[in-house]
Every structure is written in structure tokens, then in C-alpha cells.
């Protein structure tokens, strides 16, 4: 990551903040200004009174934080690069501070010790989710493992999901992940005409992740980035990422607005319909085939259909659980492959070291495999460093306190939304020296998988916080890491990745509010040696 770029974003965010914090009304009508100011002041004092009255029985108040604006709270400061604003406040208010968005109290935690104390050790209190109006109520219709409160429905969905995402399950379908990683490299080789023309690697990464999830959830795959389902599915995931950021919808925090068919609500309803039609449609097809006695490959949908009576899962439950997989498992892993492809061209020396390691350990006659990972510490470290620098979810998926809790003399009332401020934790100079620098060496001695790293007793030793924490930690970690390993190690094995002199890659901008991926870019993928075509099964360079 380029440090000057980051400084610029930081300055922009802080400038934004200061301008909005000043909140200067410019109006031609003096009386309107006075009336507005009077109402705002009244609301402001009412709000301040409410805020200061939030104390536990011992008089402990809620953590300090920015005051925000009347009615809106801190919402206007978080519409762009919210992670940078949260970081700015962490420096001002400390590792645990509160903000208001409309009527909702948020507590932002920015230290591994506090994450462990609250989210892990007190997981019985901090494992719920807020039923946000757009994401939970409208898009997921009160279902979907990701958004469900900490209750029996969540336990059931988590158990079913884990059955398809645990180590044994992932080992059983690793051949699928393996095949998709090879297909990805092959498709890149072909589209780039063996390195003669630049390409945008993003759709290829999207299709690889999509195919993995389609195989796990529905037992089929697509064969080209031009398959209509690729566009439709990626559009649904992107729309989800663009419309359900944890802090991005005002209608979530101003309940009065929920009575109207606002554009945001209409958008949420359309997305719900799209998910149910697409993924619910596949479930219906599979169910129909099963009724007709047609052999259906093992997959999550088949498991759900087989056990729907005993699990009491209706069609909507199944459609939304499948959608949660298709959303949670596609844009996320694809985003890591995309951030890797966007940033690695700027680091020829890092590529050279990775190539040297690959040549030594794997050689040039075959692709790297899952078994090679433990012997390729430098390539492994590159991936962890991409994940530290480009976590697709800087704000994670927030947790909610399901009862009042007092921590270090600070009161966290029931229903407070708790956010892991991963940007600040990933850029803490006491943990990661020169945090703005992309430097895989910092992970060279860390041979643990992220799934194992999350279980370390000392939270300061954990690699990164990309997968969240506690009882709601991402259950897809094992499959995600395996997919990412196979795709990135094979891209490194096959290509030298170069940027184009006239097309600088923008690493500061990103698409998405809840999950972020790079804005479109093109790079050159130059086959590294003569064996690439042969190992990929393409004797001739494509015309
Ligand atoms: C790079 C890839 C991925 C990242 C960064 C990621 C990140 C996350 C995060 C931050 C959470 C919330 C954790 C918390 O509440 O503390 C989560 C939850 C979840 N993820 Fe992932 N994820 C990834 C891949 C996957 C994959 C491949 C799947 C497979 C289906 C998946 C399925 C889920 C599900 C179902 C949940 C909801 C868990 C719950 O609320 O109990 N994720 N993920």
C-alpha cells in the first residue's frame, strides 16, 4: 500500500469530518435559519440529556465519544471511508468509544484485548445481531444466518452451515477448489493471449469464487465468465455489498422513516426478490429433480431438502440460507484475489522472492497444491499481508449486546451495536511496524492458518481480524483460506504481474459499502517460463 495515498485519504476523511463537524448552515432566509437552529438546539439538548442519562446502577456512564448532530448523530461523518473516521476517533477517544447513529448507540472497539474480553470471553452477551431494517428485515426477511439474532434459529442455521464448512467437509470438496483455481489461471492465460494483452483479472476471480460456492451450495458450476448466471449472481452480491453497510442506511436508525416506501427500502425489496428468485429457484429445481428420482450431487441444498421436515426449514429459510452462502462466500474471497492482483504489480522484488521460493519448493513441472502451503512461508505471508492491508470488511459484521454490561467502569447498555474497528487494529504501529507499508516479511514466522490463529490465547499474536471474532466468527474461514491459497499461489507460480505504464491502479478507492473490492483495473500477466502453457494443458500460446 502506498503511504502517500493513505495519507491523502486520511486527510480527505478528516477534512470532511471537520467541515461537517462545523456544520455551517448557509441559507438566504434568516428566519428559516433561526427556526431550524432553535429546533436543532432543542433536539440536541434532549439528545444530550438522554445520552448522559444512560448509566448503570453504580452510576457508570457509556463510553465517551463524538457528540454528533441532532437526530442524525454521527451518521454524516461515516458516509465515505468510515474506517478512516473511526480510526480518527479511536486516536481521539481511545480503544473503546461510543457513537450514535440516529437512535442507535454503537460502541467501537479498537484493541485486541477488548475484543477478546467482550466478544470472546463474554460471548454469551456479545454474540447477537441488530435486526437492521434494510439488511435483516427487508433483504433477509428475518432469516439468513449472518443477520439473525443470537437465538435458536441462528444455532440451527449455524449448525447446518458448519456441516458444509468444517475441515472434513472442506477436505472432501478440495478437488473442486483445486480445479477452479487451475481454471482461473488458464482463463487468465487465455484471455491475456499468453501475456500479450492486458486484462482485468476481477471477473475471473469473481467466477472462481462463484463456482466454488455454486458447487458447495447447489452442486453445479458455470463454464465461462460470459455465462449469464455469472453476471446475475455477481450483481446480486455486489448489490448486497452496496446496500447493506453496517452504518450506511439512515433508514435503519430513524425508525419513523421505515413507515415509508423510501428508495432504499424499494432497493432492499428488489434485492430480496432477486435472491429468492435466483437461489430459491435453484432449490426448487433440485427438489423437483429429487422428487423425480434424478441423481443430484451432494450439496448444501440437497442436505437442506433432505432434512427440511426434521429441521423445520421452509422454502424461504432454505432460499435465504443459500443466499447467505452465495453472498458471504463469493465477493469476499474474490475481493482478496482482486486486491492481491491490484497491488502485487507494484512489488517486483516481492514477486521475485515468491518466484524463487516456488521454483525451489514446487519446481516448474507442476502447480502448487494444498500440501505445499506449509513449505512456502513467503507465499503464505504475502496472502496474510494482503488480508491485513485490504480486509474486505473493515467494519466486520457488528455484534450486539443482548444484556446490559459494564466493562472497565464503562456501561454498555443492552442492544448496543459493537463494531470491531479492524482498520485501526490492522494499522497499529506497536503491532505492525510501518503499518502503511505492504511488507509480507512481517508474517514470515507465522505458519498458522487464520482459522488456527483466531484460537490463540494471546489476541495480540493473532494474524489479523478479517474473519471477525467470537461465536459469530466467519464459519467459512477454512474454505476461504484454501480457495485463496490455491488461486494466489498458482497466479504467482504462473505469472509475473505488471501494471501498465499509462493506467495507474487506484488502491485508495473501492466499490462497496459493507464489502469492498478494488475499482476496475488492468494488468499484464506474463507467463513466467515455457512450462506454464504445458502444465496448464495449453501447448500453444492462444492466437
Ligand atoms: C475472505 C473471505 C471472507 C471474509 C473476509 C469473511 C468475513 C466474515 C466476517 C467478518 C464475518 C462476521 C464475523 C463476526 O460476526 O465476528 C463473517 C461471517 C460469516 N461468513 Fe464469512 N468471510 C469470508 C468468507 C466466507 C466464506 C467462503 C463463507 C462460506 C459460505 C462465509 C460464510 C459466512 C457466514 C455464513 C457468516 C455468518 C456467521 C454468523 O453470523 O454466525 N464467509 N464472515
TrEMBL record:
Domain of life the protein comes from: Eukaryota
Family matches, as InterPro entries: Cyt_P450 (IPR001128), Cyt_P450_CS (IPR017972), Cyt_P450_E_grp-I (IPR002401), Cyt_P450_sf (IPR036396), Cytochrome_P450_fung (IPR050364)
Transmembrane helix in keyword set: yes
Keyword Metal-binding: yes
Transmembrane segments: 29-47
GO MF terms, alphabetically ordered: heme binding; iron ion binding; monooxygenase activity; oxidoreductase activity, acting on paired donors, with incorporation or reduction of molecular oxygen
Recorded metabolic or biological pathway in which this protein acts: Secondary metabolite biosynthesis
Pfam families: p450
Compartments in which it is found: Membrane
Cofactors: heme
Positions of heme binding: 474
Membrane topology type: Single-pass membrane protein
GO cellular-component term (any): membrane
Gene3D superfamilies (UniProt xref): Cytochrome P450
Keywords, alphabetical: Glycoprotein, Heme, Iron, Membrane, Metal-binding, Monooxygenase, Oxidoreductase, Transmembrane, Transmembrane helix
Record-stated family: Belongs to the cytochrome P450 family.
Protein name: Cytochrome P450
Organism, as annotated: Lentinula edodes
Organism taxonomic ancestry: Eukaryota, Fungi, Dikarya, Basidiomycota, Agaricomycotina
Amino acid at each position: 500500500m502506498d503511504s502517500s495515498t493513505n495519507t491523502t485519504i486520511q486527510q480527505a476523511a478528516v477534512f470532511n469530518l471537520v467541515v461537517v463537524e462545523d456544520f455551517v448552515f448557509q441559507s438566504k432566509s434568516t428566519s428559516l435559519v433561526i427556526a431550524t437552529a432553535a429546533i436543532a438546539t432543542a433536539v440536541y439538548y434532549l439528545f444530550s440529556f438522554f445520552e448522559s442519562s444512560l448509566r448503570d446502577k453504580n452510576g457508570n456512564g457509556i463510553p465517551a465519544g463524538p457528540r454528533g448532530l441532532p437526530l442524525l448523530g454521527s451518521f454524516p461523518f461515516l458516509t465515505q471511508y468510515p474506517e478512516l473516521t473511526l480510526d480518527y476517533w479511536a486516536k481521539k477517544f481511545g480503544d473503546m468509544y461510543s457513537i450514535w447513529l440516529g437512535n442507535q448507540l454503537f460502541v467501537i472497539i479498537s484493541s485486541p484485548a477488548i475484543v477478546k474480553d467482550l466478544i470472546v470471553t463474554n460471548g454469551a452477551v456479545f454474540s447477537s445481531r441488530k435486526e437492521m431494517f434494510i439488511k435483516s428485515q427487508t433483504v433477509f426477511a428475518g432469516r439468513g444466518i449472518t443477520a439473525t439474532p443470537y437465538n435458536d434459529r441462528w444455532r440451527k442455521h449455524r449448525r447446518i452451515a458448519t456441516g458444509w464448512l468444517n475441515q472434513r467437509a472442506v477436505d472432501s470438496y478440495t478437488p473442486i477448489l483445486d480445479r477452479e483455481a487451475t481454471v482461473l489461471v488458464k482463463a487468465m492465460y487465455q484471455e491475456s493471449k499468453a501475456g500479450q494483452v492486458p486484462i482485468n483479472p476481477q471477473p475471473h476471480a469473481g467466477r472462481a469464487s462463484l463456482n466454488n460456492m455454486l458447487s458447495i451450495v447447489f452442486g453445479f458450476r458455470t463454464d465461462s465468465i460470459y455465462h449469464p448466471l455469472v453476471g446475475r449472481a455477481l450483481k446480486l452480491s455486489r448489490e448486497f455489498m452496496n446496500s447493506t453497510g453496517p452504518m450506511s442506511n439512515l433508514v435503519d436508525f430513524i425508525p419513523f422513516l421505515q413507515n415509508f416506501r423510501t428508495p432504499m427500502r424499494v432497493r432492499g425489496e428488489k434485492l430480496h426478490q432477486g435472491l429468492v428468485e435466483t437461489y430459491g429457484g435453484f432449490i426448487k429445481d433440485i427438489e423437483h429433480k429429487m422428487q423425480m428420482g434424478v441423481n443430484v450431487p451432494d450439496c448444501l441444498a440437497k442436505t437442506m431438502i433432505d432434512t427440511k421436515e426434521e429441521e423445520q426449514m421452509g422454502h424461504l429459510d432454505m432460499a435465504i440460507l443459500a443466499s447467505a452462502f452465495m453472498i458471504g462466500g463469493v465477493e469476499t474471497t474474490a475481493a482478496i484475489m482482486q486486491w492481491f492482483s491490484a497491488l502485487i504489480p507494484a512489488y517486483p522484488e516481492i514477486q521475485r522472492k515468491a518466484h524463487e521460493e516456488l521454483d525451489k519448493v514446487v519446481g516448474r513441472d507442476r502447480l502448487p497444491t494444498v500440501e505445499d502451503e506449509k513449505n512456502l512461508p513467503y507465499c503464505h505471508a504475502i496472502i496474510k499481508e494482503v488480508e491485513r492491508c485490504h480486509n474486505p470488511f473493515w467494519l466486520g459484521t457488528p455484534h450486539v449486546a443482548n444484556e446490559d454490561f459494564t466493562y472497565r467502569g464503562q456501561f454498555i447498555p443492552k442492544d448496543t451495536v459493537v463494531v470491531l474497528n479492524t482498520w485501526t487494529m490492522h494499522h497499529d504501529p506497536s503491532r505492525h511496524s510501518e503499518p502503511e507499508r505492504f511488507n509480507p516479511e512481517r508474517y514470515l514466522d507465522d505458519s498458522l492458518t487464520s482459522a488456527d490463529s483466531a484460537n490463540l490465547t494471546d489476541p495480540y499474536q493473532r494474524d489479523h481480524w478479517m474473519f471477525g471474532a467470537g461465536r459469530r466468527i466467519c464459519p467459512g474461514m477454512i474454505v476461504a483460506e484454501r480457495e485463496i491459497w490455491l488461486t494466489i499461489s498458482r497466479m504467482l507460480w504462473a505469472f509475473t504481474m505488471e501494471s501498465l505504464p499509462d493506467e495507474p491502479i487506484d488502491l485508495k478507492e473501492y466499490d462497496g459499502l459493507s464489502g469492498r473490492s478494488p475499482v476496475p483495473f488492468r494488468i499484464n500477466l506474463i507467463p513466467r517460463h515455457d512450462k506454464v502453457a504445458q502444465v496448464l494443458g495449453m501447448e500453444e500460446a492462444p492466437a
